[in-house]
Write a structure and sequence with these properties.
The chain has about 190 residues and is mainly beta. It contains 4 helices and 9 strands. A hairpin with a 2-residue loop joins strand 8 and strand 9. This is DUF2163 domain-containing protein.
Amino acid sequence: MAFPTRLQQVLDEGRAIIRSGIKIACTTGTYGFWNGKGDIVIAGLTYWPNSLITVSEPVYGLGTAASTFTAELVAQRDSGLTPDKLLLIESEGYKDAPVTVYDFYFDPDDRSFLHAEPGAYGYIDTIDHSRDGGEPKLIANVRSGAIANHRDGYRTASHEDQQLVSAGDMFFQYASKVKHESFDISFD
């Protein structure tokens, strides 16, 4: 992976400023939060500040099994992430909303944005409510992007479907004609 030249330079020097961000794409709106100060616009999306973003370490399974992690956002009036902004996510269709966690890289000399590197990715399963020192907190329970490994697609192993993929291909010509039979076996 090649980073932009300036980012690679400040990384090599050990001086890059790294912040975390999270993007949640609900059915009618996309929301961004980051653990810095003030609003920041990255790729056309405004990320609201929240210095208390917490993303748990994903719990990994074997093979292609989906892992889970949580993303916690605490409403902080002094940072601009008021409870009403935080609850916007709740009023959206958040079930199965894609979530991407990012590392945001900034130049240490002029604080300019250099690069967004995506990290953990998944889909919101549920959102829990809690209070952290009196402030409302949303805890998104996220299933990793590997959940897509187990989703059924619309394709089938049939001659008709194969013709849509590759006309004239006869590999599945008998697939829909296979008959399933059961046998009674008795041992006397």
